[in-house]
């Protein structure tokens, strides 16, 4: 039997203004599902893999086809249910209800391990949804660029007086998310050395201008870094190698990067991390035939890499876990001080989350870049005072190649998101934009995730592991009328370590959409402010008061 | 500081037709929350405990008061969010959205243990919601009587040719749920010996006519059983004692019950199971001061009890786990064959779940028993051919004392539930009933729970632990317009072992309610049929076809 997950088809979403489904509310998830598998967007579209190890958009190709058929057929008062990438039901709801409801990779906690997941996966009973892969709002590496940029800028502010000129960042992994690192570093004014074991990933980033140069040896890469930092030039190099070899080697040589982090897919020991001494071919083959052996070897190598990261940290170099759960893996391998260095959220991002600020994003269903440029201009007009944001939009336009449907990311929070949504909807209505816009966000956002090794690490009140919050977020977005809503387990930190929810809303230009947008794009970030206010953060409490939130047990 | 969970107040819901909130859609959750804490309903209302160990209706008394205040103030296009028994936000939604959204006790899987929960609980950051305690649709022991009755009847059918006359059932626990066992046994025609360590619990069941007699010694109890079974009389006795002492003693004596089970609160080793050799007073005191010691001793005793249950099973006596996870506890204590005897769902209940049949229930917000009697008659009229159901309703009316707001339980499935709902709504509209009715169900239902040691034990396709299903159920009920929707973790099998969702819908007599009822009471059981059809059960596939369900990836 052929593998139900392998196919040679190339998927492209429809573009333009002609509907291929019954309305824009169903056309939107249809185009975005296809966009997730667009050859320029997905990491391995022929195996349905969008990004982040084995994060998929549908369980099998057959399921993909059935989802497409169901969406084409769906009425505007019906709702399609998707269970781990498989379409399982169409039910009568109403026009203000979501058109699609999604639950991916959720397991009862006692069984929420990679072993059990892999067993189910092999039987065809599961799919790894990552965050935006199985919920159809991945927009390529751009999705992560601004978050990474904001993180590096904040690190520069905290450690280097706000100036990263002549500084360099060491990291690993140039995959779907990690590929954003060199570009974000350069945008923030720093150089970057990224260790990546897959030559194709480096070439992909070169082609899309996310990385500037490629090196085959460490010496070559270090020579470039030395030259660029001396000249005060912000440039990046992808070094072909294994991070578990290169990181300790740098420690041994006494080389001092200015910031150290990593974005290999360490959250998934079977599929995400090349063990030391293995070739790519060997790794690929054994993932299927001997997954346990792969995981064991990968975990051992992760421990070596984290040990080196701890050494950098001990030497006073700002070192940060970039959300791939690599510290946990090393801890489980017996590296007791694996959590010596912090995660990036408590270090740099939480103050933003307290105000509901996170990776807000939108895409132009028309496929026309002009639609995005017009929304860029609208954002600048509405947020006319925000110089930092104007700067970001200018850089993004200049440096970021669109992948698939043109899209934009822009970290904004409560009080702003709904204004942008309403403005975009108005632009659709009056014909300024050629077709509807969808607005969504990463699951990594302020109110949508419980992830004690990442987004909710070291919460002020110790509530890191409480996952009522993302569940409430999903229920409220459903009640508010988002166009599709998703609930995932696993994601960026792997099985057992997080629960999170996503939402996307379609601006089809209608007045019904106005009402939904006003509710959803207010309520969604407000749940983030609520969650952080409940944990006792002053910034969140202030934000809640300023915005007049009604939080009975909190305010 | 005084304990925020202790108070001497007695809570009674309003009755009659006068509103204490702004509409029946908010009056309904208000009365049902209060009803959960009614002195005749809750096991320990002064500590906010409704049933099932520490299953609470609100996190603290302050939270209770704030929930009440928020509900009184809530508009019909607003939604109150409740996070582990605390009211955390009021948001703008719309009239077809739920008025309350609830998430209780949910923890990220890696941290989903009693230890971590108890730590959070101590800090005031958690509440155990059980199933219907924190979701405000507990209706006293009646809620479980019919399920237990159906289970005993089915056991009689499978093992004793459909006749339980002269047979007797051995069990443990006469708490909120377990208290239903003697009555259900008697209704099914059998005698029952129930071992209970708390004299108050026995007295409570005597008072409410759930148990017929009380015994202080095993000899006394066995004498009654011998006498009744010989006479072919169906009667029950509550024996004061520790099940971990009595069960092995019976094995030792060679006494052979006809069916063996148990409903102590074994799912919660700290609060739910009296260790052997301890007094009740000692147990109560140490739960607060030395919880770990209690848990250790309780687990050791559970192992002893399960060992005896395995012995009964080995001796050919039908023995079944009644959903309190006691096998898992014994297994973790090293009793390798703890899972020798099955759970009650795969043994007796799954065929019902395949057709969406489960513990459907309703309550009369008027407080008037006549309203329930009228609905009883309506059910008989609509299901005029169903003799088994008529029989149940007659027995229920005769034998079951209402607790708190009058309520009825009735196991019905897809295709019937919405009909009953619409009929009740019509009766409210035309004044046949004096006030609105709420309709809900247990979380233990066909589409609403993932619980590999109970409801989803031994699923045909091995998908026991997949919890996408209850999450989809909650999202769909939210999208369909239930009046309140809840998502819980833990419940009857304890931390880490289940995820489940609840829903309640208010029949206020309006035409809007007609539309919502038609959607919710169809979609909700349909998700159960969908879940079992996906797992490959023929009965579910047939039911889906008969009812014309649209299940793209399944049918
Ligand atoms: N911080 C965040 O905001 C955030 C967001 C999303 C994802 N993540 C996490 O970051 C990680 C990377 O995500 P992604 O989408 O880029 O994943 P990916 O699987 O697309 O890319 C991982 C890359 O790492 C490379 N790699 C694996 N082992 C290596 C090794 N030993 N040495 C060098 N390179 C190696 C792979 O070849 C691949 O290119 C994941 O764990 C993901 O969950 C973080
Ligand atoms: N099968 C089902 O449908 C179903 C439904 C709900 C709950 N449950 C489970 O059944 C169990 C009982 O539920 P409940 O609501 O009655 O709980 P409860 O806490 O109200 O009652 C438990 C009773 O067991 C008694 N008990 C404790 N240890 C004992 C011992 N060693 N010997 C004798 N008696 C002992 C307690 O005194 C108490 O009266 C729970 O684990 C619950 O989760 C099963």
UniProtKB/TrEMBL annotation, chains A, B:
Urocanase C-terminal domain sequence ranges:
351-545
Cofactor field? NAD(+)
Residues involved in NAD(+) binding: 52-53, 130, 176-178, 196, 242-243, 263-267, 273-274, 322, 492
The Urocanase Rossmann-like domain sits at 140-348
Q: Which Pfam families match?
A: Urocanase (PF01175), Urocanase_C (PF17392), Urocanase_N (PF17391)
List the active-site residues: 410
Question: Reaction catalysed by this chain?
Answer: 4-imidazolone-5-propanoate = trans-urocanate + H2O
Its pathway is: Amino-acid degradation; L-histidine degradation into L-glutamate; N-formimidoyl-L-glutamate from L-histidine: step 2/3
Q: What is its main location?
A: cytoplasm
Q: Domain named Urocanase N-terminal: which ranges?
A: 14-137
Kindly list the places in or outside the cell where this protein is found, as annotated in its UniProt entry: Cytoplasm
List this protein's GO terms for biological process.
L-histidine catabolic process to glutamate and formamide; L-histidine catabolic process to glutamate and formate
- As recorded in UniProt, its EC number(s) are 4.2.1.49
Question: Which GO cellular component terms, listed alphabetically, does the Swiss-Prot or TrEMBL entry include?
Answer: cytoplasm
Enumerate the GO terms in the molecular function aspect.
Answer: urocanate hydratase activity
Which Gene3D superfamilies does the entry mention?
Urocanase like domains, Urocanase superfamily
Keyword Cytoplasm assigned to the entry: answer is yes
User: Which superkingdom is the protein from?
Assistant: Bacteria
The top EC class is lyase
Per the entry, the cofactor note is: Binds 1 NAD(+) per subunit.
So what does this one do? Catalyzes the conversion of urocanate to 4-imidazolone-5-propionate.
Q: Which family does it belong to?
A: Belongs to the urocanase family.
UniProt-recorded name of the protein: Urocanate hydratase
Q: What organism is the protein native to?
A: Pacificitalea manganoxidans
